[in-house]
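README: folding subset

This subset contains proteins for which both the sequence and a predicted structure token string are available. Records are stored as plain text. Below is the entry for Phosphatase PAP2 family protein (190 residues), shown exactly as it appears on disk.
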Amino acid sequence: MIEYFIDIDQKFFLFLNGIHSPFWDKIMLLITTSRTWIPFYLFLIYIIFKNNKVKTGLWLVVVILISVGLADFVASGIMKPFFMRLRPCYEPLVSIQMHMVKDCGGQFGFVSSHASTSFALAFSFTALIKKYRLLNVFLWIWAFIVAYSRIYVGVHYPLDIFFGAIIGCFLSYLVIFIANKSINQLNIYE
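--- output ---
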């Protein structure tokens, strides 16, 4: 049964990865590079502090950073070494059929850290900062595009992305749940 899902995942990867052009190669390489988004992250921090007292703003930033950091740790530090699923670019039968845009990176890819962290950021920000609906919609679209870029550049299968996104959202929910209990006990909003 697992082999059946792996086969479908590989075929779906090859289909999605096969849709490419030199123009999109450059765009997706830019999108998949984490440093590209530093100004965007700083903008999000600005939005948080613009609309909250310093103490509350710091608390919100810390909760979001813990969500993203935990998502990255679970994806890269626990799941990849545990499952040891090769990235498509290391899979001999897949790598000869795929389009590679960048270097392959680490050997294992299940689950995608980019997907887990981008969805953790989107989930935690939109759950905590509800005022900016358009920005929140953009964050979810951004998370999907960042996650898809990993398939495009050839370093993750669709299931790596799917489960990375689920883990990012779940861990963010868990961190926010615990933080809300702490906020009630610490009276952070007073």
